[in-house]
DNA sequence: TATTATCCATCTGTTTTAGCTATGGAGTTA
DNA sequence: TAACTCCATAGCTAAAACAGATGGATAATA
């Protein structure tokens, strides 16, 4: 039983006549007869009474009419869904690390609503390693992660570069220091994200370049906790400029580095084997647009203070 | 899009692997690949992300999974219905003339319940001409009509022959007459069924053979009216012996003809082009059994007095 | 009744296509 | 680097869908 056979069958059932049904099906009458006979042989049931003048459905034929209509109806719906659904809601699955997701994703959504772009955006905030695995596993169209990234099998496009700032409580001496570089952080207590955090690793790398091992007293699971601890004076941290928010706790101070200007690159990553669908392509375009027309892409791409 | 392609597609979706899906589908891997590519070309949509390790559904692929499952599910249900339904309820459409239906059909149903035969019997009581048209039109498996019948294109099997009896009211002279033949009816008033009735025509034929034209004062639409009128003494009638019933009106007398023994043959008629399904075959067997093991089939086949 | 028209099945040849084997490229693992 | 896995491509075979011609049976018409 195949769909084309069911279409032929319904044509005969409709016209009660093999010859006319064949014409309407754009095949010859013998071909249509043969397919009906094939169906009858497969079912072990005669489907039509061949009376002289017309073909009349048998009981089995009546059953098959209902079934065939339902089957073909489902097929039509499915076909329509395949044609229309991607147009109605181009979907994209995007993963982003904790220090990027809360700032970049809202900017993308704002761009969409401002420019009347319809995009069903699914996001997944997680550690870089998990996101990369999901890119390999086919669960994500894009991952927004920090560089450097040594995954030669993946396509990597650096979206922008953002400066890292010192974050301390207002009462901390460094809140008003003139000179800020990594060397002055040598004896400070660090508040960092978890060990899987790429930002934390990067900060430790900067410390290493400044020839010291940071003393890490606090490992936090989320940015808000880092900020709160810093505001309370439990230690210092280093965060991207874009992490600054109007909802930050009272007494939290962001200070630009006066030397060294540490920064990090954020890249858009995809698997080359993954089909670049409409939604995925759209997201990439919007991401580049949100980053700004500035082709150097060397400054914070979205409003540092969204409020 | 064809059903076999959808089966292949679902296999790939299930295993995430073209090679294994091909094995489970009992075809070679290139054949399966080709069919998936055909589907993708037809839809204008990629269905799988071909990542190195595994094949992962695209958004379009996910839509098709749902659709394909529904389509194939409908196909399975339809197939099951075609296999099971005819077994659960073998159906048959039978037409019978007015003088046969009220006696023969109950006998068939009684036989079914007595012998635990499951048969979905649809009956249609109507004039012979209408029944024959419906046999040609494919609406009936069988028609139970009286002979003679000149329809060379139909298959005719004489089921039984039943005597015709004189029917009069108890107060009528003929209720006690010694000699009863058609000649003594010459001056009687006849109560007959409508002009389309074959029994009425047959009675007129018998009258003609006895060399007189019957005086027909009453044309009735149904047997009960004929009996009632006869019981009231409005005239005489001639009915098959099997028409005798326990519920007949008071004072109705059935008299056997002492000469000539008029009778009529009842035949089972079918269209040779009509498929003889399980139900239709069953009905014919039962009809023959009800008529009785008596191969001569020359006597009333079912209880003359069902009560 | 004879004739013509209609309708479906069968026969035969053609074309399409599903399917197979062999192969190669890309990616993955050892 | 080498062995291995996975999918796509190429060339071929075989099955089957399809078309045209024909015939038998039935139905409409003269």
Question: What does this 3D model show about the protein?
Answer:
The structure is a homodimer of 307-residue chains. Chain A is of the alpha/beta class and 307 residues long. Chain A has 3 domains: 85 residues, Arc Repressor Mutant, subunit A (Orthogonal Bundle); 97 residues, 3-Layer(aba) Sandwich (D-Maltodextrin-Binding Protein, domain 2); 102 residues, D-Maltodextrin-Binding Protein, domain 2, CATH 3.40.190. Helices cover 40% and strands 21% of the residues of chain A. Chain A has 9 helices and 11 strands. In chain A, the strands form 3 sheets. In chain A, strands 3, 4, 5, 6, 9, 10 and 11 form a 7-stranded mixed sheet that branches. A two-stranded antiparallel ribbon of chain A has the order 1-2. The first copy, chain A, has a two-stranded parallel ribbon with strand order 7-8. In chain A, strand 3, helix 5 and strand 4 form a beta-alpha-beta unit. In chain A, helix 1 packs across helix 2. The longest helix of chain A has 30 residues. Chain A is rod-shaped, with a radius of gyration of 32 Å. The first copy, chain A, starts with a helix and ends in a 16-residue tail after the last helix. The relative contact order of chain A is 0.14. About 2% of the residues of chain A have low confidence. Chain A binds a DNA duplex (30 and 30 nucleotides) through helix 3.
Write the layout of secondary structure elements.
The structure is a homodimer of 307-residue chains.
Chain A: H1 3-15, H2 18-24, H3 29-43, E1 48-50, E2 55-57, H4 59-88, E3 91-96, H5 101-114, E4 120-125, H6 128-137, E5 142-146, E6 155-169, E7 189-193, H7 198-209, E8 215-220, H8 223-231, E9 237-240, E10 252-256, E11 263-270, H9 278-291
Parallel strand pairs in A: 3-4, 3-5, 7-8
Antiparallel strand pairs in A: 1-2, 5-11, 6-9, 6-10, 6-11
Helix pairs in contact in A: 1-2, 1-4, 2-3, 5-9
Chain A binds a DNA duplex (30 and 30 nucleotides) through residues 4, 17-19, 27-35, 37, 50-55, 153, 273.
């Amino acid at each position: 039983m195949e769909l084309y056979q069911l279409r032929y069958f319904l044509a005969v059932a409709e016209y009660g006549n093999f010859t006319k049904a064949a014409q309407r099906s754009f095949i010859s009458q013998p071909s249509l007869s043969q397919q009906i006979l094939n169906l009858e042989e497969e079912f072990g049931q005669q489907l039509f009474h061949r009376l002289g003048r017309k073909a009349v459905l048998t009981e089995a034929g009546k059953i098959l009419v209902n079934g065939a209509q339902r089957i073909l109806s489902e097929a039509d719906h499915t076909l329509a869904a395949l044609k229309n659904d991607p147009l109605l809601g181009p979907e994209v699955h995007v993963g982003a690390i904790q220090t990027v997701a809360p700032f970049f994703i809202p900017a993308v959504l704002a761009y969409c609503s401002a420019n009347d772009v319809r995009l069903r955006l699914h996001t997944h905030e997680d550690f870089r390693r998990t996101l990369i695995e999901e890119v390999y596993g086919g669960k994500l169209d894009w991952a927004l992660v920090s560089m450097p990234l040594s995954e030669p099998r993946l396509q990597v496009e650096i979206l922008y570069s953002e400066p890292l700032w010192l974050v301390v409580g207002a009462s901390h001496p460094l809140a008003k220091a003139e000179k800020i570089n990594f060397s002055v952080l040598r004896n400070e207590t660090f508040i960092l994200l978890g060990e899987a955090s790429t930002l934390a690793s990067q900060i430790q790398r900067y410390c290493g370049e400044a020839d010291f091992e940071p003393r890490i007293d606090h490992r936090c699971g989320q940015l808000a906790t880092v900020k709160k601890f810093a505001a309370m004076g439990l230690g210092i941290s280093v965060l991207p400029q874009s992490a600054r928010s109007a909802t930050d706790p009272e007494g939290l101070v962001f200070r630009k580095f006066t030397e060294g200007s540490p920064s990090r690159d954020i890249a858009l990553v995809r698997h080359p084997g993954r089909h670049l669908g409409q939604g995925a392509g759209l997201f990439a375009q919007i991401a580049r647009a949100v980053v700004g027309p500035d082709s150097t892409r060397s400054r914070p791409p979205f409003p540092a203070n969204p409020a």
